[in-house]
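Feature request disguised as a bug report, sorry. It would help if multi-protein outputs had a clear separator. Right now it looks like this:
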Amino acid sequence: MSDTSKKLFLLDAMALIYRAYFAFSKNPRINSKGLNTSAVLGFANTLY
């Protein structure tokens, strides 16, 4: 085995998306087509 250790991260994506959606419920993120993208933004911010 090499010197680098391998890591595995398990995420409960549905819970993170749910939290992200309601985190922006009072000030939703709307794109140019009028779609609510709050969950996408919040989930991406969580991963980064």
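(second protein starts here, but nothing in the output says so)
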Amino acid sequence: RVLGRGAHSCVYRGRLRLGRAVAIKRLNNADKECSKDFCRELMISSSLDNRFVVPLLGYCVDAEGLFLVYKFVSGGNLEHHLHGNIPSRGFDGHDLQVLTQAQTKESSGTVGSKNAGRKGRACLPWSVRFKVALGVAQAVAYLHYGIERCVVHRDIKPSNILLSSKKTPK
């Protein structure tokens, strides 16, 4: 099942032999630029260890493509939870974008949410929004100051922020 597409990549949902769900990013190995992007992403992702960053589980290089295997994040992306089922505004291919169909139940704790009470829209209580903002800030702080070589993400946006089933941002 396709989860998302980029300019030079496609992300699929898959399962490992023992049943663990994964997100598999496939890059075109015929393109030299993709090979550079793959190597860069592999080097960076393999060095990261933070609860707010999706962990890289493995990689594969073969004749069919270049593959990066990440832990599957089951809660959908922040854009969906804030704005509901809206059409994608595009993807520039720089970062992993995983789109899922997860829905959250509307809660009475969403006073002030512009989506509260609108049928077909997901919404997040303000306490969860704060938790997500804090987690994203901690992830950025880790990328900038918590590792030997600073990593600048360059594309932080709601559609690139994934949420776990417990609404922890990744």
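Even a blank line would do. Unrelated, but nice: DSSP finds three helices and five strands in the chain.
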